Automatic annotation (TrEMBL):
It is a multi-pass membrane protein. It is found in: Cell membrane. Gene3D superfamilies: Rieske [2Fe-2S] iron-sulphur domain (2.102.10.10). Keywords: 2Fe-2S, Cell membrane, Disulfide bond, Electron transport, Iron, Iron-sulfur, Membrane, Metal-binding, Oxidoreductase, Respiratory chain, Transmembrane, Transmembrane helix, Transport. Its cofactor is [2Fe-2S] cluster. Pfam families: QcrA_N, Rieske. Residues 8-17 have a biased composition (Basic and acidic residues). One of its GO terms (molecular function) is oxidoreductase activity, acting on paired donors, with incorporation or reduction of molecular oxygen. GO terms for cellular component: plasma membrane. Its main location: membrane. This is Cytochrome bc1 complex Rieske iron-sulfur subunit. The lineage of its organism: Bacteria, Bacillati, Actinomycetota, Actinomycetes, Kitasatosporales.
């Protein structure tokens, strides 16, 4: 017998009926089940007019969704895509009316459906409380054995294991059906082709100072300085400026030739002037922090650190590749120019990247 069984009646707590706000205690010493509180009826449960008003409100939300859907289709037909059709909308800025109208109408359509469903559930659907007793989730051993027995019998009767031709062709068909979805991805946009592997830099292209817009002479780059450059044929007024600068941005450093550890990297520069991609090879952030004593550059996003004196190899952080280097020289007037493209694809790695 347990110690509780040996307790005398005078030691058992008396049942409390809630006097003074205390909990209800059963004679056996355990708290009694307080049960559910009294159900409070909503206004729509006892007032038919309120119920009909709530019904109209729900219907209004659903009708608003239908109107927004029609507006979505109309917007797709009326407005034309393209940068020439952009308009200024405060405080968003310049946006295309097609994208703006499609986004607004689709958002209103989905929101109205959700709002109508929530209002319906909160005002008209039943909200009475019900008790559902817990029960074991696991099936009994007899039920599990019966399930396994039925499965084995079904597999035997189907001939799945014996008829290999049917089994193998069925597996092949089920495996190939999802491949049809890959074809649909072709309609998501033009193929990248070699855009991920190439940039706008070509042999003979001059380097232009990103701040002044003037060609950069080798004598302008001082030891210990960091200069940002871009192709001479690129201008901030170009329609594709943002797309090109995301890959063509360049940083120039100059160091004493004796400080350059990687001789291959030194051969790609000119008289100690080295040109590296400004785009971090982790997630593509622009690099701008330079420590001239160590020749290290730091990406401000995730602190990837590259040693420019050693071929811009990664010495710290999550970046997986060194910064690509641009081979440079000078023209007849002393201006720095590209002699070739980058030594590797610019930016983060991708699945088909080859160094």
């Amino acid at each position: 017998m347990t110690s509780q069984d040996n307790m005398s009646e005078e030691h058992l707590p008396e049942a409390s009926h809630g006097h003074g706000g205390g909990p209800v205690v059963a004679p056996d010493g355990y708290f009694a089940d307080p049960g559910l509180p009294p159900h409070e009826h909503r206004r729509t449960d006892i007032d038919e007019k309120a119920a009909r008003r709530a019904e109209r409100q729900v219907a209004m939300w659903f009708m608003l969704s239908m109107v927004a859907t029609v507006a979505f289709i109309a917007s797709y037909v009326i407005f034309k895509p393209g940068p020439t059709h952009h308009v200024y909308i405060w405080p968003i800025g310049n946006v295309g009316p097609l994208n703006f109208s499609l986004g607004v109408t689709l958002g209103v359509s989905l929101f109205a459906i959700g709002a109508g469903a929530v209002h319906w559930a909160r005002t008209l659907m039943s909200d009475e409380e019900h008790i559902s007793e817990r029960h074991p989730v696991e099936s009994s051993p007899e039920v599990r054995e019966q399930v396994f027995s039925d499965f084995r019998q079904g597999a035997k009767e189907s001939g799945f294991g014996r008829r290999k031709l049917i089994r193998n062709t069925m597996i092949g068909a089920m495996a190939m059906v999802p491949l049809s979805a890959v074809v649909l991805f072709r309609d998501l946009g033009p193929l990248p082709e070699d855009k991920l592997s190439t940039t706008g830099w070509k042999a003979g292209m001059l380097l232009k100072n990103m701040n002044t817009g003037e060609p950069i002479q080798a004598s302008d780059v001082q030891v210990g300085s960091l200069t940002f450059a871009m192709p001479a044929d690129l201008s901030e007024t170009d329609d594709d400026f943002q797309e090109r600068i995301a890959k063509d941005a360049l940083m120039l450093v100059r160091m004493q030739p004796s400080d350059i550890k990687d001789q291959k990297s030194a051969s790609l520069g000119y008289d100690g002037v080295l040109a590296f991609s400004k785009i971090c090879t982790h997630v593509g952030c622009p690099i701008s922090l330079y420590e001239q004593q160590t020749h290290h550059v730091l990406c401000p996003c995730h602190q990837s650190t590259f040693d420019l004196s050693d071929g811009a190899r990664v010495i710290f952080g999550p970046a997986g590749h060194p910064l690509p280097q641009l081979q440079i020289g000078i023209d007849t007037t002393g201006n720095l120019e590209a002699l070739n493209g980058f030594t590797a694809p610019v930016g983060p790695g991708f699945w088909e990247r080859s160094e």
